[in-house]
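Input structure tokens:
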């Protein structure tokens, strides 16, 4: 079975950062979204925790952008800062 593109992007981001803790500090908004998903174990687990469909989350991944209205809920459920998810809005 082939890995989803987003998870291989995530693994590459962790490798480039040197560690998961480094990634948490230096993540791009896209990498922050992937980090939030990984903290819930899967797209399905993530989408269930925040109350959206897995298909909707896949759209976010495809566009590499988290909708502003979901940032607070993602922060509450995963601990990934909304400032990391959308620095263009929350900084």
């Amino acid at each position: 079975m082939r890995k989803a593109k987003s998870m291989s992007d995530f693994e590459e981001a962790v490798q480039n950062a040197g560690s998961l803790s480094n990634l948490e500090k230096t993540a791009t908004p896209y990498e922050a979204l992937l980090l939030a998903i990984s903290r819930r174990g899967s797209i399905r687990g993530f989408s269930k925790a925040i109350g959206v469909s897995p298909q909707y989350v896949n759209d976010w991944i495809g566009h590499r952008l988290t909708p502003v209205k979901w940032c607070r809920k993602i922060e509450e459920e995963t601990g990934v800062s909304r400032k990391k998810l959308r620095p263009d809005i929350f900084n």
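The CA atoms of residues 43 and 58 lie 8 Å apart. The chain has a mean pLDDT of 86.
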